[in-house]
Design brief:
Blueprint: E1 4-8, H1 13-24, H2 29-41, E2 63-69, E3 75-81, H3 87-94, E4 102-104, H4 105-114, H5 125-134, E5 150-155, E6 161-167, E7 188-191, E8 195-201, H6 203-206, H7 211-220, H8 225-244, E9 250-256, E10 261-265, E11 269-275, E12 278-288, E13 291-296
Helix pairs in contact: 1-2, 2-3, 7-8
The chain binds aspartic acid.
Length: 306
């Protein structure tokens, strides 16, 4: 396959179409991935990413984003960033530096301001109302409906692979909480000589298994993208169930250096895939025993939005 792209959740369908068009025109994976993720960041209807993201306990929307270039292994990331339009674009620019690649909180904001990144108040009236209604309920942090990370993995016609993620993290998180998403190795990993992976779900679980790097190393050891994704997820699920009695929601997408994809999940998980031979389509993955299976879903109205 000359090019391929995979992305998480139904909310990424339109962005994946845009990314696929760019890859088909021969544009770089990094450009396609940013256009795809920004499509989700800019849509106030998606309450787990960018504009309209659900707030932390303190009522502020803090965003996390991460990017990795599979040719150079350079990565950039922002955590707990407030007041900017596109965490993925800022993360991408941080990957060009030798040091100071992962900035959080005020420092991330200062960098974004100094470098002219577009500012935006990401708290919408709808997100504020939901926060108002739920802030006093004692709530276990889970990756429940409406709170998921958009992840993109793209391979371009020059065989370059990159990974990118963007999220507002968990609704009602504590101020300063950062999940797996901007953490290189856990939330995303890319090596153009092997492939890439990215995760969504409860960050505190995903980080226990350094999930994305683990899956890429499985591909390096010879596993197919699908085997690598399901082994990484289901092994972690097994270990956490054995040790702690439970494992919260975790899902993982993988893409090998040829453009083949894989998916691992312990929930019901929608994702989108496109390549030279296949137009962007929505798929639904679920666990079945020791494997994860998926099917293409045509009637997308029957699938949950996030
Ligand atoms: N992984 C994200 C976090 O823990 C949330 C998600 O993907 O649902 O912040």
């Amino acid at each position: 396959m000359k090019w391929a792209v995979i992305s998480t959740w139904k909310m990424s369908l339109e962005g994946c179409r845009k990314a696929a068009d760019l890859l088909a025109q021969g544009k770089p994976a990094s450009e396609a991935l940013i256009v795809g993720i920004e499509d989700v960041e800019d849509n106030a209807g998606f309450t787990s990413v960018g504009f309209g993201g659900l707030p932390a306990l303190d009522g502020h929307v803090y965003l996390d984003g991460g990017y990795m270039d599979g040719d150079t292994l350079r990565f950039g990331a922002v955590g707990a960033l407030e007041g900017f339009r596109s965490p993925i674009r800022i993360a991408r620019s941080l990957a060009d530096r030798e040091f100071n690649n992962f900035l959080v909180g005020e420092g991330a904001g200062e960098y974004a301001l100094k470098n002219g990144f577009e500012q935006r108040d990401n708290l919408t009236e709808e997100s504020r109302k939901r926060w108002e209604a739920e802030k006093n309920k004692s709530q276990k942090l889970v990756s429940y409906d409406g709170h998921d990370t958009v992840c993109f993995l793209a391979k371009d016609q020059n065989a370059s692979i990159c990974a990118g993620v963007s999220t507002s993290g968990l609704f009602l998180k504590e101020t300063g909480r950062i999940g797996d998403s901007p953490v290189c190795g856990s939330g995303y990993y890319a090596d153009s000589a092997i492939g890439a992976a990215a995760a969504t779900g409860v960050g505190e679980e995903i980080m226990k298994g350094i999930l994305s790097h683990t899956a890429v190393m499985y591909m390096n050891a010879g596993m197919r993208a699908q085997e690598a994704a399901e082994k990484a997820v289901l092994d972690l699920d097994l270990q956490l169930n054995r040790r702690n009695g439970s494992c919260d929601a975790i899902s993982l997408i993988t893409l090998d250096r040829h453009g083949n994809f894989g998916v691992g999940t312990n929930i019901v998980f929608p994702f989108v895939y496109a390549c030279e031979e296949k137009e962007p389509k929505l798929y639904l993955a679920r666990r079945e025993g020791n494997h994860c299976i998926y099917e293409q879903v045509d009637d997308i109205t029957t699938v949950k939005q996030d």
